[in-house]
Sequence to fold (268 residues):
Amino acid sequence: MKLFFTRDKWRGYRESLEETLGFVPTMGALHNGHLKLVHQAKKEMGKVVVSIFVNPKQFNKAEDLINYPKTLENDLRILKAVGVDAVFLPITSEVYPKNDTYESALPGTNALGLEGDFRPGHFEGVVNVVDRLFHWMKPDTAYFGQKDLQQCMVIKEFASVKYPNLNIVTVATERENTGLAMSSRNMRLSEKGREKASAIYEVLSRLKDFPQEIQWGINYLATKDIQTEYLEPLEIELHTEAGLMNRAWVFAGYLENIRLIDNIIYYR
Ligand code: PAF
Fold:
C-alpha cells in the first residue's frame, strides 16, 4: 500500500495509472461503514485510493474538531489488510496552503435546512475539501456513505456541475446488530450509550410506516436520554444499489453530548 503526503507525489502516481480509480474520502477513525465503501470500490474499480484528512473547515464547533477520534495507526493497518492500493494523507497546509488561490465550489440548494441550519458553515467546509480532493485525486468514481444523506445530496449537486464525468456512488449505511448506524462518533459513546442509541433506528423504522407518530418518536428517544434536534420526513431522489429511493426520514440529536445523525431511505 502506497502512502502519499503531497499532491505532487500523488500526481506522478495518478498519471502512471492505467486502471480505473475509485476514491473513498474519509476523516479516519475507520469502521465497517468505511470498509463497506472500500469493498465496493475494490469490486468495481481497478485501483482504490482512500484519503484521511480531518477537515477543520467543516467543524462548526472547535470542541467537536478537538474531540474527533484520531486513530491513524489502526486506520492504516486496516486499509492495508483490506488491500487498498494507496492512501492520501495530507497535512492541513497541503490542503489549504497559505497563499491559497484555489476557487472552491459552493454548496447548492441541497445544503439548505437540516444540517445546513444546525451546523452553519458545515457544508461549505465539506464542499471546499471534497472539491479539492476530486480535483487532485482525479478519480473515476467516488464513494460516500448514505448515513450522511444530506452530504451525499450536496456532493452530488456540486459535482454534477463541476465534475460531470465523475461517477458518485452512495453506499447503504452499515449498522450494528442493534440497528445503530456505524459512525466514528460512536467510539465516544459509553457501552450503555451505544445500547440507548439503537432507539434512533427503531424510531426511524417505525416512522416509515406510521408517519403521524413523530411526537411519540421524540418522547421515546428522550426516555433513552437522546435529545432530538430534528426528526423529519424528506422527499429525495437517490439512485442506490436497491433502485431509486424517493423518501427518507432523517434524524439528528445528542446523546452523552455527542451529536448523532441517521436516516432511513425507501421508495413509496
Ligand atoms: O463524510 C466524511 O467523512 C467527510 O465529510 C468527508 C466527505 C471525508 C469530507 O471531509
Observations:
- The first strand starts at residue 2 and ends at 4.
- The chain is about 40% helix and 25% strand.
